[in-house]
Amino acid sequence: MSRTLIYGYGNPGRQDDGIGARFVELMDAWIAKEQIQNVFTDCNYQLNVEDSALIADYESVIFVDASVADIEDFKLEEVLPNNATIEFTMHAVSTAYVLDLCRKLYNKNPRTFVLHIKAYEFDFVEALTPKAIQNLQAAFEFIKAFLVKEMN
Fold it and tell me: 9: Cβ–Cβ under 8 A, 6 or more apart, which residues?
């Protein structure tokens, strides 16, 4: 299996926006329990241009973030560097922009996905809503199976 990075982002102090950080906590526990060697994690409040250097060290990257998009519970989609845009939102740059910078600056093009997990509330609370927890768990089980398939 190739080296894979699971990168969660969002603000754990803003209720469901903390889904990315919580996903990384679950992933860290699973990696330790199963003694998985080629899956690594990182977490931050938002994506930054510097993350292009980080992802250059991996063959695969899965970004994990809370989403208010019209999705059921979660959605995994592949990210292409030619879709790169700077987004003026809570997250400073898009995943495609980070990937595009990685390709341009480091001549690396890791296979990249974003895992959108449906979120509902963004108040100043350090806890996920019950429905977001359900979505998080469903997405986590899906990604574990996805990674196990990639390992074999």
Answer: 20, 21, 43, 44, 45, 46, 47, 63, 64, 65, 91
Tokens of 134: 């359900």
The mean predicted confidence, pLDDT, of the chain is 92
Q: Which residues pair with 6 in a beta bridge?
A: 41, 62
pLDDT tens by residue, 130-147: 999 999 999 999 999 999
Nearest Cα neighbor of 116 from 57, 72, 52 is 72
Nearest to 113 by CA among 128, 131, 98, 129: 98
Closest CA to 92 of 33, 9, 5: 9
- Cα 99 to Cα 86: distance, rounded to the nearest angstrom: 12
Return the CATH fold of 4-151: Rossmann fold (3.40.50)
Could you tell me which of 57, 64, 49, 67 has the C-alpha nearest to residue 3? 57
Give the least confident one: 14-18, 81-85, 126-130. 81-85
43, 45, 46, 48 alpha-carbon torsion, rounded to 10°: -70
User: Tell me, what amino acid is at 76?
Assistant: L
